[in-house]
Amino acid sequence: MKLTLTRVAPIALAAAVISVSGIALASIPDASGVIHGCYKTSGPAQGVLGVIDTGAGQACPSGTTPLSWNQTGPQGPAGATGATGAQGPQGDTGPQGPAGPSTAGPTGLDVITVFNNGDSGPNNIGLGVNCPNDHPYAIGGGGVATSFGFQSSSQLVESRPVGIEGPSNYSVSVARGWWVQGSTAGMYEEAYAICAK
């Protein structure tokens, strides 16, 4: 079925749907955005579609079928996601951030190494070394416990940092020195600590 859309209908349809006695077509589409029309279903003018102004009281005459449609159609479904675009150029390098806090001096980390040595004695109480006040933080350490010739490399049983609480406290929050202990009494022991500001 072929539809012909026109505002100039044959005289028979135009006389029925459009008043030309000085009334302007000011309500097409209506306030809701709907366009109203009449489709001629028979007679010589069959297939002609005329637009009417329902706001002015116009209606479709006999021999026509009312048709209504929106001036703006409903929103269609979302389209498929497009292809990923090409990678953009690399941005400029940002400014350098401020330096974080550090214990380093002008030429690097300011550290010293301190030593202590002696005999473990008959009670084998171990040997410690403490960092001085001007370099109070132990960042490493070690030691030696030897009987001079009897498996000396395997006779060090403790080598660990110590805090201000002393070697009896194994939970050290801030290391302030180093502690070593040999496996038997009467051994020669040496402890050292690497201390920083």
> How many domains is the backbone divided into?
2
The end-to-end distance, rounded to whole angstroms, is: 97 Å
What is the H/E string?
EHEEEEEEEEEEE
Please tally the β strands and state the result.
Answer: 12
Low-confidence stretches: 1-25
Radius of gyration: 50 Å
> Strand-residue fraction?
35-45%
CA-based shape = rod-shaped
Question: What composes the largest sheet?
Answer: 4 strands, mixed
Overall mean pLDDT stands at 78
Strand order of the largest sheet: 1-3-2-4
Count helical runs. Answer: 1
Query: Helix/strand/pairing class, anyone?
Result: mainly beta
Give helix % range: under 10%
Short description:
This protein has 197 residues and is mainly beta. It has one helix spanning 11-17; strands spanning 4-5, 34-40, 48-52, 64-70, 104-105, 108-109, 111-119, 127-130, 137-146, 156-162, 177-182, 188-196.
Describe the protein.
The chain is mainly beta and 197 residues long. It folds into two domains: 4-70, no CATH class; 106-196, no CATH class. It has one helix and twelve strands, in the order E-H-E-E-E-E-E-E-E-E-E-E-E. It has a four-stranded mixed beta sheet with strand order 1-3-2-4, covered by helices on one side. Strands 7-12-9 form a three-stranded antiparallel beta sheet, with no helix packed on it. Strand 5 and strand 6 (108-109) form a beta hairpin. It is rod-shaped. The two termini are 97 Å apart. 18% of the residues are buried.
